[in-house]
Design a protein that fits this description.
Blueprint lengths: L4 E2 L3 H8 L3 H10 L21 E5 L3 H12 L3 E5 L5 H9 L3 E4 L13 E4 L4 H13 L3 E4 L12 E5 L2 E5 L6 H14 L4 H18 L3 H15 L7 H15 L4 H6 L1 E6 L10 H8 L3 E4 L5 H4 L7 E4 L11 H13 L3 E6 L9 H10 L3 E5 L4 H8 L12 E6 L13 H5 L3 E6 L5 H10 L7 E6 L7 E6 L3 H8 L5 E5 L4 H18 L1
Parallel strand pairs: 1-11, 2-3, 2-5, 3-4, 5-6, 9-12, 9-13, 10-11, 10-12, 14-15
Antiparallel strand pairs: 7-8, 15-18, 16-17, 16-18
Helix pairs in contact: 3-4, 8-9
The structure holds S-adenosyl-L-homocysteine.
Amino acid sequence: MRTLSTSGAHDKEAKDLVKTEADQQEDHEDNDAAPMQGLASLPVFFDLAGKRVLLAGGSARAAWKAELLQAAGAEVDVICPDPGAGIVALAGRCELVHLTQRRWQPEDFNGMALAFGDFLAKDDAAAFYAAARLARVSANLIDRPEFCDFQVGTIIDRSPLVIAISTKGASPVFALALRGWLEALLPRAIKLWATAAEGWRAKLKVRAPSARIQRRFWEMFVSKALGARAPEAADFDALLTAALGESRGETQSPRAQGSVALVGAGPGDPELLTLKALRVLQAADVVLYDDLVAPEIIGMARREARMIAVGKRGYRASCKQDDIIAKMIMLAEAGKKVVRLKGGDPSIFGRGNEEIASLTAAGVSVEIVAGITAALGAAASLKLSLTERDRARRVQFITAHAHDGRLPDDIDWSSLCDPRAASAVYMGLRTLEALSQRLLAEGIDPFTPAILVERATCPDERRIFGTIADLPAKAATAAPSGPCLVLIGHAFDSASERQNEASRTVGSLSA
Ligand code: SAH
C-alpha cells in the first residue's frame, strides 16, 4: 500500500520528490521486505513466429484458437477426424494452418512448441494431456483448467503492444468486461507509439550509447506515448536532443519537460472521473490533492507517484495557497509532471486563475482537465434537471462564502430571487441561515424549493428537502459534516414533490 505523505517535513520531501526513477529502483533493491507471494500465474509472452503448434479439435472455438496462433506467426497443425466448417475454411485461406483429417497420435507432438486440444469427453482430454506431458510439450485443453499447463489470457491487441488479462479461469466474462474497460482507457495512438519504439530502439543505441541517456530518452518517450497525439518522425530527434541536453547539464531541458495539470476529480464518485483525468493522473510523478478528492481516485495514481495532501477546507488549519503554488513551480522546474487534483471542476470556486497565472508567469507549462462540478453531480444523483423549459431558463453557480467566511454582500439578489432561475450554492452551509433571511427580505417566494445535498455522489450522500424558508432549521438539526451544496429554485418543485410523496408513503406505512 502506498504511503501518503502530508505537506509537513518539507525539505526532506522536496529532495525525495526530485528523485529519478533509477534512485527509486535502488531504494527498492535496498529494501528488505518479504518477497512477493501468491501470484496466481506468471504471464509469459511467447514468440511463436516460425514455431509449430499442435491443435487437436475442429470446433468453432478450436478454429478461433487456430486463427489466434497463426496471427502470432505459428505453423498450426490441426488434426481432427471431423472438422467443422470454420476450421476447414480457415485452413483453405491461411497458409500457416494445415488440416489433417484423422485422430491425433502420440507422434504428432514431435517438434511442437505448444499443444492445444478441444474435446467433448473428459477422457479424451485427459489422454491428450497425458500424451503431451510424455512428449514434454506444454498443453492447454480448451475450457478444461485441470488439463492446462498455461492459460491464454484475454487479449488487447495493439501490436507490438499486447496486453493479456487472466483470472486463471475464474471468470472469463469478468476478464472480457475488464478488457472493454481497459480498451476505453488506452490512449488512441498507443499502437503507433509502440511501433515507433520498435523502430527507434536500434537507432537510439547507435546515436546514444550511454545507458543513462537511453533511459532518459524512454522516460520522455513514455510521457508522449501516453498523450493524445500520434508520433511523428521528428519526435525521435527532439527526444534525443532533450535527453542529450540533460546529460550535458543544460538546465532548460528538465524545466521544459516538467509541467502542471490542474485536474478535476469530480464530486466524489470515482466513476465520474473523466478518461482524460485518469490518463493524466496516471502519468503524474507527483500528485497534490485536495481533501475533497475520494481516496479511490487518489489510489488510481501510479504506485511510484508521490502523493501530497494539500487540504484547504475553509475554516480549517490548511496549507497556504502560496505554498501550494510555490511547491508546484519547484517540482515542475525539477522536471516533474505534477498533477493538482481538485474536487469537482478546476474552474469552479477552485482559485484556478490564481494558479494558472502564477504557473504561467514562472514559465511552467499548464494544462487544465475539466471535471464534473458538484452541482452537476448532485443533479444527476437527485435525478433532476437543472434547467426546465418554463421554470428554469438560467442556472447559476454561486458561492455564499466571502473571504471572511461571511455571506458576501455583493451578490445580485434579484437574480437569486428570480423564479425562473435555478441556483447552486457552493460553500453555503455556514451562511445558509443568513442567505435564507436575506433572500426572504429581498422578496423570494418563501415556498421556493431548497435542497441541501451533502457529499453528493458519494456512498454516504444525504439530502435534506425543504423550502428556502425552512431549510436552515432542518439543516441545523441534521448537522452535516461533509461538503454541502444547496440547490434553490422552482426547477426543483418536482424533486420536492417526489420527496413529499415518498415521506407520506413512509408515514402511512408506519402509522
Ligand atoms: N471545484 C469544486 C468546488 C470547490 S468549492 C467543484 O467544482 O465542485 C468546495 C465546495 O464545493 C464545497 O464547500 C461544497 O459546497 C461543494 N462540493 C464539492 N463537492 C461536493 C459534494 N460531493 N457534495 C456537495 N457539495 C460539494
